[in-house]
Amino acid sequence: MPKKIGVLLLCFVVLLSGCSSSNKTAYKEEPEEELTEYQEEFNDFLKDQLVETLESDYYTLHSYLKDPETYDIDSASVEKTFGRMDAVSMEEDRKEIQKTLDQLQAFDYEQLTDQQQDTYDIFTYNMECSKELSDPKFDYIASAFSPMTGIHVSFPTIFADWTFDSEQELKDLILMIQDVDDYTQSAIDYTYTQNEKGYLCLDFDSILSYCEKILDKGLESSVLKGLQDQVDALDLDSDQTKAYKQELEQAFSDSYLQAYQLIKTAMSDLKQNGNNHPNGLASFDVGKEYYSLLMKNNTGSDMEVIEVEDLMDTACKEHLQTFIENADSDMSFLFTSTNYTSYEQMLDDIQDQMFDDFPKVESLEYEIKDMEEDVASDNGVAAYFQIPEIDGDLKGQLRVNPNNNNMKAIDTYMTVAHEGMPGHMYQYNYAQEHISEPLRWSILASSAYQEGYATYAQHYSLRYLKGIKPKQLKAYSEYMLVIYDALVLADIGIHYYNWDQEKCQKEIEENYGITIDEKQYKQLLYTPCAFEPYYTGYEQIMDLKERAKNTLKSDYNEKEFHTILLNCGPVPFFIVEENMAKAWKA
Fold this sequence. Notes:
By secondary structure, the protein is an all-alpha fold.
């Protein structure tokens, strides 16, 4: 696989979990028969792929491993870099993808165990998606500075979440901060080439505004303060502590802050002199083809764009009808609130009720920690789940927004259910407890499954709220689904049918009753397929659920459905569908 994951890809990388044995609904993996020599060879190949990726650069290694020696990796030999965005790196990635595919496809599928075949299918799907998207004709079409996943919005979260507990790890962190400006310069150079090739499509005002906020904070950044607090916690002598804090501050000033100055200068120049595209991917020569591949990758399926459009159109109209049937004329559901005063109360309440509907896991330890102030003030997010290292314990960390003044809002409750239980945190622990192959829950996830499942979990969890009329909760849920399904349809319109803002607003309002404002339009324009993993994933799960009910009729059991779904882990949906079909026949 590509040796360097890098910042942009790690913004999307989550957990890979493969399907358990197809007919299983038990809570733990059944013991496998003794492996043949050929099957052991396949397992060795998987381990080699995991190790090669983990040791490709220090950011990847630090993100996934607590103790590199667990995998016989010498962290001292790993390059302290975020990688580079340049033609050389793109060509290296292409070669690595093809090499990995060749090695993978050299194995005889029929000689593998059922679970190994699942892993093979997952791996092949991911690598083929990567191969298609890395075609040279698409080299400069993706943006390095999108408003939701660009490097400028990623670095604050990366370093706010960065932890170290030894002097050597501190030294390595400083080297990584010193690499930020060089990595950023490579992204800027990439963007200038993008402009020359006619693929520039950036929201300059939002990028410049973001950079100015970072630069205005300067050395008063809460991200820097958080790192310096960790230096204090290392229990070094006072002289060492002072020296390291000064070195950290110098790196932050000379590289981290300098990177934002570089971005600001470049964006100001490109805003004035660049050829910025005002329309979506369909306006580019290969944009429609690229968007089709992006859609495949972000829906975890083999669906064509028109099939996704049909799925979401049908779902959106059904949600709209159900909403109308449940909503009061005064729209009072929008003003309904919970009685919660803390995130802990929400999680405890959900955990007390959810195991009637979801299988138990052995470990659900977690801690709740505030986001750094800079991150909290910029993203507006109530909470997010920070993934534990794959060799660490299963104690999850929920990062929460200390500035959230809407603790009682239903939306806050749904976000906590999405990120915590029975969403990401619970699903991650379940996967790690039930799936033995580390590669399957570490590197190559289907974001559509993972985000689709968490979106399903947040809507499902509304039934655990007390003191609010079920009809109001149903109206709230359906209203949210209408909005976000409509945003996916708007995304398709912008990037596949080349809708401009006026056309987009007209089509969505006439067909679904939803108003797309300028901010939403720009968000979709500058970040294609941003919402697809969440809502096409959700709708695919709901489609499977409906088919399960129709197939099993009176034998349908909600907990069994959830167990089969969770046993699959975050895999492409065609694999989930195959495993579901086998389970229904069992």
